[in-house]
């Protein structure tokens, strides 16, 4: 089921399958990648309760192991609308017998989207309905069209500008794992800018940690147009475009939780940046864009 929301100048669309924002149009430009399968069929999946891969695609809670698909269990299951207005929609997913075979907790996951004339926001809330503490990771995987318009040039005519990133390192994943054998990139040494280059993604995703300011702007060097991406509350930021495909999009991925390290255990509590919720507690985080 598709749910449309709009403001005077913007239009958004949320798919209840996966609970994701599959379109945001402003000024005649589509910002969200439209899932062409020859490049990547996704658009903006929600990552829960793992970000990227668990070790060996298995995750353990108190020593008991469960199969865990890449990016978790939420993105390929239905959400139900619980609130709809002109410019906002909230959809909800609850634990089922099937999810309990992979993630042994009763949970509620809400996705709350709103649009305005100047951008959109996405907010995610996890509630622990279980009798035990719940350990989980939570992240976004939104893909953005690069370029937004033909006059903006190509992918490599764009730049990411951070507010304060000169002391941050850029790790590179390999086969969806954090792998210390892959050299870190010196992309943010003495600069706050990353000029997009396809070759930087020849291994896989780029992971940036310890950003003191949780915001980045993606703009065209030709026109100066683009958007500012704000991700308060997240511990790491992933950047990804498919290896070797020269695809016209970039995923900007805020994560609480990292891909498994090659030397990591399968235990959920060992995952870097994982969150823990006591019974009855909830946790909320989100991201937004502001049009430039």
Q: Mind explaining what this structure looks like?
A:
By secondary structure, the chain is mainly beta. The chain has one domain: Beta-galactosidase, Chain A, domain 5. The chain is 1% helix and 43% strand. It has 1 helix and 25 strands. Strands 8-9-10-11-25-21-20-15-18 form a 9-stranded antiparallel β-sheet, with no helix packed on it. It starts with a strand and ends with a strand. The mean pLDDT is 95.
Provide a concise account of the structure shown.
The protein has 292 residues and is an all-beta fold. It has one helix at residues 97-100; strands spanning 2-6, 10-15, 20-26, 29-30, 46-47, 58-61, 64-67, 80-84, 88-94, 107-116, 119-128, 134-136, 138-140, 143-145, 158-162, 170-174, 177-178, 193-195, 206-209, 215-220, 226-230, 236-240, 249-256, 275-277, 282-291.
Shape: globular
Write down the overall mean pLDDT: 95
Rg over alpha carbons: 18 Å
CATH topology-level fold name: Beta-galactosidase, Chain A, domain 5
What is the CATH top level name?
Mainly Beta
How many structural domains does the protein architecture include?
A: 1
Tally the helices: what do you get? 1
How many extended strands?
25
Name its key features.
25 strands; 1% helix; mainly beta; 8-stranded antiparallel β-sheet; Beta-galactosidase, Chain A, domain 5; 292 residues; 1 helix
């Amino acid at each position: 089921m598709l749910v449309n929301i709009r403001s005077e100048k913007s239009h958004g669309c949320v798919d209840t399958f996966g609970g994701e924002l599959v379109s945001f149009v402003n000024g005649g430009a589509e910002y969200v990648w439209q899932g062409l399968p020859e490049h990547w069929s996704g658009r903006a999946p929600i990552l829960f309760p793992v970000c990227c891969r668990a070790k060996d695609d298995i995750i353990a809670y108190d020593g008991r192991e469960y199969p865990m698909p890449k990016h978790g269990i939420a993105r390929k299951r239905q959400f139900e609308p619980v609130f709809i207005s002109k410019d906002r929609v909230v959809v909800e997913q609850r634990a089922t017998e099937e999810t309990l075979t992979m993630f042994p907790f009763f949970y509620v996951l809400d996705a709350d989207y709103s649009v305005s004339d100047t951008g959109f926001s996405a907010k995610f809330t996890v509630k622990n309905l279980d009798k035990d503490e719940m350990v989980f990771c939570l992240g976004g995987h939104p893909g953005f069209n690069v370029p937004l318009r033909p006059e903006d040039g190509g992918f490599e005519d764009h730049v990411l500008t951070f507010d304060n990133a000169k002391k941050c390192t850029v790790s590179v994943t390999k086969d969806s794992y954090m792998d210390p054998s892959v050299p870190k990139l010196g992309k943010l040494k003495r600069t706050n800018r990353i000029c997009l280059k396809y070759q930087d993604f020849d291994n896989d995703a780029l992971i940036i940690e310890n950003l003191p300011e949780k915001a980045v702007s993606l703009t065209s060097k030709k026109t100066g147009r683009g958007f500012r991406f704000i991700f308060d509350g997240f511990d790491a930021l992933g950047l990804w475009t498919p290896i070797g495909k020269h695809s016209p999009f970039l995923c900007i991925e805020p994560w609480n939780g990292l891909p498994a390290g090659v030397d990591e255990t399968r235990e959920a509590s060992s995952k870097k940046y994982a969150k823990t919720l006591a019974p009855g507690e909830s946790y909320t985080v989100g991201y937004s864009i502001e049009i430039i």
